[in-house]
Amino acid sequence: MAVYIALLRGINVGGKHVVKMAELKRLFEELGCKRVETYIQSGNVLFESDEAEAELRRKLERGFESAFGFFSSIILRTSAEWKAIIAGCPFTEQEITEAEASSDVECQYAAMLPEPPGSDDIARLETHRSENETYRIAGRDVYLLFRNNGIRNSKLANQLQKLSVPATVRNWKTMNKLAALAEALER
């Protein structure tokens, strides 16, 4: 069985689309997922499954919409893929250190997509790259680094929601915590 990390997009944000993690865990269990765990309220679910990603994603999204009455894109990565995302961070230690020194808020993020962004999507992101907001794409993952203001008022981050494929973003601390939880689940 593979250990998966599911990222739900747009739940429990600003008091909208509120979903209790206990209910979300129960839904995943009812849909056949094993050893289900959730992490914080932003829609992070870890579990085991034998199913292939595409089929599993469709099943989870349909089940979620049926149970909660609204649609949420669900992005899936295996534990091995998650480790590779973290290990593949394209920013240098110097770039990260400089970004952290320029801000009091989190500066490093990753956006996960169900498939790689198309050329039009990349062009849209490119128009918002700046000295203070940059990104690098690796397959279906977009690494983000912010200086000064962080992600909250980022024009670049706002463009992620306008891509032709769904994207969901997690800060680097959450990325590392999910990696540790996935590793523990593999034991």
UniProtKB/TrEMBL annotation:
| PANTHER family xref list | BLL4334 PROTEIN, DUF1697 DOMAIN-CONTAINING PROTEIN
> What's the source species for this entry?
Paenibacillus cisolokensis
Protein name as catalogued:
Cytoplasmic protein
* Coiled coil stretches, renumbered: none
Q: Kindly give the InterPro entries that the UniProt entry links to this protein.
A: DUF1697
User: What is the top-level taxon of the source organism?
Assistant: Bacteria
Q: What is the lineage of its organism?
A: Bacteria, Bacillati, Bacillota, Bacilli, Bacillales
